[in-house]
């Protein structure tokens, strides 16, 4: 049987679909030829990048046209709305846009013509007016400034589009919770009313018994097919287990997957212990590791806010999230350890001594846990969203993974943090109520994640 490359399970996220609105005035002002040139260059950028886009009009100069343009973008299901003024528009259109587009948006200011004595566009001034007005109206936005031919500007525009579309995904989202948080982990408690008030996100709750009942409804044929797929990963076994553990993991996998699809969930948290291994005799951690590696936003131990962190990371295209305990630390590094369900893409390669393998849980010796070591020399961002004092918070730091000090069972790793005294950061964040789970993604994304936090109206903690 051919093995599946587990490093390639995670899909490449598509670029966001853009709605682009060219705002101007009814009578040509400043340098209309320069404005037309900027519009052509913006269209050229869209074509060059192969972006899917909706551009309703070449010039939007009044209330009815703006409303119709936004309606067209909404009907086309764009991911992000971009408002640009190649030459300055009418500032009275800003509150109209805020009224009609009820989601974060991107304001793109373009530069002046680099020749001649007269100012040619006043685009940045017009965008500044819109931004200041949006802030007074409590409407979130991202600002981009630069020429559409400039690669840095193009990257900034796409990043801004991901930030606003990810924030909207959270605000309009739905996250599930199976059971409750695990015993004693009160710092992971989810409040459905505050989730709705803070984000707009809805919490769908199901008991552990309901979930286990749904597993019994899965056909043996479907379980057999998924068992074959899991076996195709080629994960080696250690300890007193073999392929006989796979059917239960297949059933868990299908149960989680179908709940996500059936209820339209963007993410899911579940109470894994003590219930699941006590009742079924199996931990669900191979199923969990597989789903997370495939880009699903799942969190163990009833960590709903951890699942929301994963929704954010997946929306931003940052790849799978490793949800980790903060095990120990010194002044510059943190031991990142958890109970055996890390994304395959972050683990040492399959087939190596510390690569992923299937075994029993270190404590009660029941299957099935994915033991692995997080690869060293990876750029990473460690971040967390949480609730305290009636509001939501987020923090994020950057660093690199390093060799762990010693081998530990389950998922083992260590991250060196850049530019931060870890002891002081830990002390500060615990006093702010940060829970004991960290979310870890590959790459350096502190700025992008904290911009998402700003767009969502969270209190940001910058070390």
Please tell me about this protein's structure.
The protein has 463 residues and is α/β, with parallel strands linked by helices. It folds into 2 domains: 18-171, Rossmann fold (3-Layer(aba) Sandwich), CATH 3.40.50.10940; 174-461, L-fucose Isomerase, Chain A, domain 2 (3-Layer(aba) Sandwich), CATH 3.40.275.10. It is built from 14 helices and 19 strands. Strand 4 (105-109), helix 4 and strand 5 form a beta-alpha-beta unit. It starts with 17 loop residues before the first strand and ends with a strand. The mean pLDDT is 96.
Oligomeric description of these chains? single chain
**Arithmetic mean pLDDT:** 96
Report strand order across the widest sheet: 10-11-17-15-14-18
N→C terminal distance = 50 Å
What is the architecture of the largest domain at the second tier of CATH? 3-Layer(aba) Sandwich
Main sheet, how many strands, which sense, barrel? 6 strands, antiparallel, barrel
The CATH homologous superfamily of the largest domain is called L-fucose Isomerase, Chain A, domain 2
Number of helices: 14
CATH class placement of the largest domain: Alpha Beta
Radius of gyration: 24 Å
Strand content: 15-25%
Examine the coordinates and then state which fold CATH places here, giving the name of the CATH topology of the largest domain: L-fucose Isomerase, Chain A, domain 2
> What coarse outline follows from CA principal-axis ratios?
elongated
Give the topology, please.
Blueprint: E1 18-22, H1 32-48, E2 53-54, H2 63-75, E3 80-84, H3 93-100, E4 105-109, H4 123-136, E5 141-145, H5 151-171, E6 174-178, H6 192-198, E7 202-206, H7 208-216, H8 220-231, H9 246-262, E8 267-270, H10 275-280, H11 285-293, E9 298-299, H12 304-315, E10 322-329, E11 333-337, E12 357-360, E13 367-373, E14 379-388, E15 391-402, E16 411-412, E17 414-417, H13 422-431, E18 437-442, H14 446-455, E19 459-461
Parallel strand pairs: 1-2, 1-3, 3-4, 4-5, 6-7, 6-8, 8-9, 13-16, 15-19
Antiparallel strand pairs: 10-11, 10-18, 11-17, 12-13, 14-15, 14-18, 15-17
